[in-house]
Amino acid sequence: SPPPPPAASCILPPPPLLRLHVISSLARTPISLRCSAADSRSPSNREMAAQQDPRLAGIAASIRVIPDFPKAGIMFQDITTLLLDVKAFRDTIDLFVDRYKDKGISVVAGIEARGFIFGPPIALAIGAKFVPLRKPKKLPGEVISEEYSLEYGTDKIEMHVGAVEAGERALIVDDLIATGGTLNAAIRLLERVGVEVYECACLMELPELKGRERLGDKPLFVLVQSSVDAHDHH
Ligand SMILES: O=P(O)(O)OC[C@H]1O[C@H](OP(=O)(O)OP(=O)(O)O)[C@H](O)[C@@H]1O
Ligand SMILES: Nc1ncnc2[nH]cnc12
Fold this sequence. Notes:
Layout: H1 8-11, H2 15-28, E1 33-34, E2 38-39, H3 43-50, H4 54-61, E3 64-67, E4 75-78, H5 80-83, H6 86-100, E5 107-111, H7 115-126, E6 129-133, E7 143-150, E8 153-160, E9 169-177, H8 181-192, E10 196-205, E11 220-226
Parallel strand pairs: 5-6, 5-9, 9-10, 10-11
Antiparallel strand pairs: 1-11, 2-11, 3-4, 7-8
Helix pairs in contact: 4-6, 6-7
This protein binds 1-O-pyrophosphono-5-O-phosphono-alpha-D-ribofuranose and adenine (ADE).
Adenine is lined by residues 74-77, 150-151, 176, 178.
């Protein structure tokens, strides 16, 4: 007789186990997740955020940290576990939408790859178009590009010519700011074509890498700050 089919539990990862793994992964590492929204646009907002929106703790807890990925010494902040948590994902989008609706933003520019996850739902909800800023040789039309360095290498981002018009107001969205090189390049790309960058929005900031300083006067808003382990820098 044929072998019995595998049990469903072998095929589907059980969610409670995954959640335990997330918590133990955070607990094992000396990473502290500060989950107050950090806002460089106005000090009064920063004070308001210090009162701690109750949604931020759930968002912070849903992000998994994987040590030594993609190479030794990097504490990788993995947002794919946040995407598995419907409430945390929805709360993330809602917090950004509440902040950016009715601000005259006509463009949400999302940075490949993880800015493509958070940018489009924000764009739809605030009534803005979505413009992908992509890694080299991915966009088929005529492009303009900017080079940048990051925590583990160098890269370039590109944008389609004609995707935005001079005078438009843009929000730049990514999952994380580390050294700030990527966001710095994105700002340069948009400003080169006469677009006003209203703000940069990220889910996470690694404040010890001082990426915020590379953005000059450009406001940065993040939901979660994560302090990196000392061995992150080697
Ligand atoms: O502030 P920085 O030091 O510039 O680093 C931040 C960038 O690094 C990560 O992307 P990565 O380049 O790893 O690309 P991926 O999303 O395609 O994996 C992250 O999603 C940001 O885009
Ligand atoms: N530590 C990190 N985790 C996730 N994405 C990153 N991009 C740059 N540094 C990162």
